[in-house]
């Protein structure tokens, strides 16, 4: 693992969305700006823009049981970006209480056996991870508590800690849609009227504030001045 001085820490910000004008992409850019302001060198990885293929292939795992196997050139390049990072921040829309296929495929292909796990001393040991998930559900929807718990279990415990990360946390950003959404007791999706004008601008400002607070808490937990 590449070592960095306190003035040269690197943050890998991974954005998993197919539209550059999405709220997810906007949040990733704002997060990158916040990390730069905190003194990080930022590597912004837009998986869709870079044409990353999330499908595992035989070149990625020519011999699964061999920890020293040669990975595909594409995966090897992405592994280098992960190794160079002190912190990794993934920004993504929540699909079915999980990450989209684009991000899951990146983890499947890049966080491969012999690289991210399967060693007595993890290569990713000591790194820190922040997952920022954007959800359409409203903050007062009963589903959000279970959603956050499930994401923490799958992403922090099932992936980051399993791969040796020193710290991992999930920031769930609710109210990401312009129409409030909730599911009633019968399973019906209730969609409210679209929020527009000044009210929508205020909603965006509040969303940005909540996203910033997640990043600042993440930095504060590391002892980085916010």
Automatic annotation (TrEMBL):
Gene3D superfamilies: 3.40.50.360. Residues 11-182 form the Flavodoxin-like fold domain. InterPro entries: Flavodoxin_fold, Flavoprotein-like_sf, NAD(P)H_dehydrogenase_qn. Keywords: Oxidoreductase. Belongs to the NAD(P)H dehydrogenase (quinone) family. NCBIfam families: PRK09739.1. This is NAD(P)H oxidoreductase. It comes from Streptomyces hyderabadensis. The lineage of its organism: Bacteria, Bacillati, Actinomycetota, Actinomycetes, Kitasatosporales.
